Automatic annotation (TrEMBL):
It is a multi-pass membrane protein. Belongs to the UPF0114 family. It comes from Gemmobacter aquaticus. It holds the Pfam family UPF0114. NCBIfam families: HI0507. Keywords: Cell membrane, Membrane, Transmembrane, Transmembrane helix. This is UPF0114 protein GCM10010991_13130. The chain crosses the membrane at residues 21-41, 61-82, 112-129, 149-172. It is found in: Cell membrane. InterPro entries: UPF0114 (IPR005134), UPF0114_bac (IPR020761).
Length: 179
């Protein structure tokens, strides 16, 4: 009876371990999302490039911030895609690729959390900067009002505070002896 229990337990554990592959379609979906973001980036780039000679300096800065915002979102996708796959599904066997990013294979779940929150804070900060640049200008499509500005600042500060608290928790966890 003991041998049956061990073999049932072993098969159950192997099944649990194999279930990590259910994440693979999600990572494939993130690849599709990266393609979608590339199309949006290209569309924005073509739109702004065609208006370069008629833009004011402020409009040029806003255009650049929009493109930076999109590239940060793409970086965030790549971080989640590579780190998540390597941490939770399988190591990427790329042979002797020389252009493999140095952080690949070294970002654990804690590092992934920190990279995610840092990217979110950066994206939020860029969005907030874009809104601040609109202050004093009459934008017909989205006039800036005090209440909206207050909420954007509160949301951004919430992201910043979350990042600080996550970093503090990781620091405290690293200093705690393992049980």
């Amino acid at each position: 009876m003991g041998a049956d229990k061990n073999s049932i337990e072993a098969r159950f554990e192997q099944g649990l371990f194999a279930s990590r592959w259910l994440m693979a379609p999600m990572y494939l979906g993130l690849v599709v999302s990266l393609g979608m973001l590339t199309v949006v980036f290209t569309k924005e780039l073509v739109y702004y490039a065609s208006k370069t000679f008629s833009m004011t300096a402020d409009q040029g800065i806003l255009a650049i911030l929009t493109l930076i915002d999109l590239s940060l979102a793409a970086n965030l996708l790549l971080i989640v895609l590579f780190s998540g796959y390597e941490n939770f599904v399988s190591k990427l066997d790329l042979g002797d690729q020389r252009d493999r990013p140095s952080w690949m294979g070294k970002v654990d779940f804690s590092g992934l959390k920190m990279k995610l929150i840092a990217s979110i804070v950066a994206i939020s900060g860029i969005h907030l900067l874009k809104v601040f640049m609109e202050v004093g200008k009459q934008a017909a499509d989205a006039p800036v009002n005090g209440e909206r500005m207050l909420w954007l600042v509160i949301i951004h500060l919430t992201f910043v505070l979350s990042g600080v608290l996550l970093a503090l928790m990781d620091w405290l966890s690293a200093r705690t002896s393992k049980h």
